[in-house]
Amino acid sequence: MKLYTDIDGVILGKSDISHRPALANYVEQYLEYCLENFDTYWLTTHCRGDAETALNYLESYASPEIMSLLSNIKPTNFKTFKTEALSGDFIWVDDQPTAYEILFLEQNDLLHRWYQVNTRKNNNELLSLIESLKQLKKTGCE
Fold this sequence. Notes:
This protein has a four-stranded parallel β-sheet with strand order 4-1-5-6, covered by helices on one side. It has a two-stranded antiparallel ribbon with strand order 2-3. The protein is globular, with a radius of gyration of 14 Å. The protein has five helices and six strands; from the N terminus they run βββαβααβαβα. Helix 4 links the parallel strand 5 and strand 6. By secondary structure, it is of the alpha/beta class. The longest helix is centred in the C-terminal third of the chain and has 15 residues, at 125-139.
């Protein structure tokens, strides 16, 4: 199964102290789990065909160990809407799809494949997402 992940609002949240952009809490565990259990792809405006742009964007926030994990995420490409890149059996993790993207998911009976995570509002949200993904794998309801 493919897992598509956004950066802003998922990988990057806000620091608990300064409220500036920072890696979300539990990002290392999230990345490790995704890379071990899913075919993992970027689905972000920071990656349109080339994962290097996403990595360059994250470089100032991440340690070398986390950058090593991030470098294993595959690129996607889309022109206008992220839903253009979705294919096959998938999970999509994003904080805020557009109204069109949500409509697309609804019309194609795929809304259940979108996991809303907003680490700008809750910097610990990746921890509960990991648990949801584990439950999904455990029940086989992919």
